[in-house]
Design brief:
- By secondary structure, the protein is of the alpha+beta class.
- It is 39% helix and 22% strand.
- Strands 1, 2, 3, 6, 14, 15 and 16 form a seven-stranded mixed sheet that branches. A seven-stranded mixed sheet has the order 19-20-18-17-24-25-26.
- β2 (15-22) and β3 (27-34) form a beta hairpin.
- The longest helix is centred in the C-terminal third of the chain and has 25 residues, at 507-531.
- It is globular.
- The N and C termini lie far apart (65 Å).
- Bound molecules: adenosine-5'-diphosphate and D-xylulose.
- Adenosine-5'-diphosphate binds at residues 12-15, 297-298, 338, 341-342, 353, 437-439, 441-442.
Length: 532
Amino acid sequence: MSSPLFLGLDSSTQSLKATAVDAELNVVFELALNFEKDLPQFNTTAGVHHGEDGLTVTSPTLLWVAAMDLLLGRMKEAGFEFGRVKAISGSGQQHGSVYWKKGASGILRNLAPAESLESQLADAFAIADSPIWMDSSTSAQCKALEEKLGGPQAVADLTGSRAYERFTGNQIAKVAVEKKEGYENTERISLVSSFVACLFTGAYAGIDYSDGAGMNLMDIRSKTWAPVAVEATAPGLADKLGEVVPSHADVGGIHNYHVERYGFDPSCRVIACSGDNPCSLAGLGLRRAGEIAISLGTSDTVFAALSEPKPSASEGHIFANPIDPDGYMALVCYKNGSMTREDIRNRAADGSWEKFDAAMASTPKGNEGRIGFYRKEPEITPPILSTGENRFDAHDAAVDSFPPEAEIRAVVEGQFLSMRLHGGNIGIEAQQILATGGASANKAILQVIADVFGVEVYTAARPNSASLGAAYRALHGWRCVDEGKFVSFAEIMESAPSFILAASPDMEAHEVYNSMLKRYAALEVKVMAAAK
Ligand code: ADP
Ligand code: XUL
């Protein structure tokens, strides 16, 4: 008898990734595809389309559909044994929304294995372009929600976050007005995560409570839709959302499409899919106080598990914890993550990470007092909707440019000073850091993290903690079903591989960063004021 496998898929901004683990959590298979490179017919840049207003950002929903068959087909060609998969779960970029057209549930139910998902679902969406987390075009809707619910603190207390532009409820509110016909023709709205579950079950799958917390629609404590927020958002929305489900819930069996086309066992279960940051929390097994994660993907995020939610009206988010039904997670998100570092790399290091690393090695820690702010995209933390760059010398005087090497160090140091500042503001204090995501492969970046926070930085053997976490959650959900009760996630993680020490703090540099942090905070206030 072949041993069971558990499969995780991560539908992120730029890519679709698969990770399979066995029951002892050994990674037995990994594969990824890149939306821009592997699906050029959708004409995206790094998986997205930017609107002309500089604020609207969408991805074609059908791109994500086509990517699923392409990845599963490549897995089949590579000899992946789908028949061994006991359970599957997924991860999705948070906040993005999918609008299923009236009648789409019938199309999903009747998926035929001989035809692609893309051709069968071509007419299944009432809105062709999904708003995603990078969108910042809904300030008016955010203001309206906060006014209706009694202000930012009231929205934060109810939903875990004040109203944020990328949060799904505010995106839905905009769609309901600007694409009224499409909205009225929508029978179900999925998040990217629950949408992945729909593609596997061939039915509408519930939104899990961890990703559901990123919508400004869910009561963060009861983990059910908050009627007052739902009603304030858009007409008839309650009927389009379905049920909120626990992150470890079994949301259905695999559809025959996948059994026939790829060779899945008909008994394979689908476990609720969740957001990429929640799945990363699962992949890293974050539990202990003081253990924090820094994820460096398309977005940069810093997050930690916590037991008592203290939602802030000014910044950060509280989500339900995807692996602990009584717990929460706190998160701060940056839009100017990897794409902004890439932009500086392209301008100051000829597009080469080697040259980028050489520049880091040739510049002193603390950058001789230089501090830079880089907004290739409108920023979430702190909220600045205009793009731009601000550079300051050691005396806090604004300057127009830095030498190329200093520019590279500035974009890295500024980001982690900001994470220490804003993470600290919502109670994220590090005793140990787990780094993940594409840029966590970069040792020079990890050293800056260790020095700024003054703690050790660890990495997993692989940087894809979201798809790995989805695979772990597939195993977890399957165990919960099998035993007919909630099994603690810690039990699942007993055989998880240990982390690798990637950078130890240089305490002299840490002192330098301690004093820079005060300057950074003061300069940030100036930058914000000037940007308004
Ligand atoms: P996502 O899951 O959001 O699609 P990933 O976690 O896969 O993103 O990260 C992709 C990013 O990783 C790329 O945009 C790239 O800028 C960054 N990256 C890859 N290698 C390096 C490196 N050596 N140094 C810094 N950044 C890197
Ligand atoms: C989190 C957020 C991003 C996306 C990126 O709130 O907006 O990290 O999840 O995938």
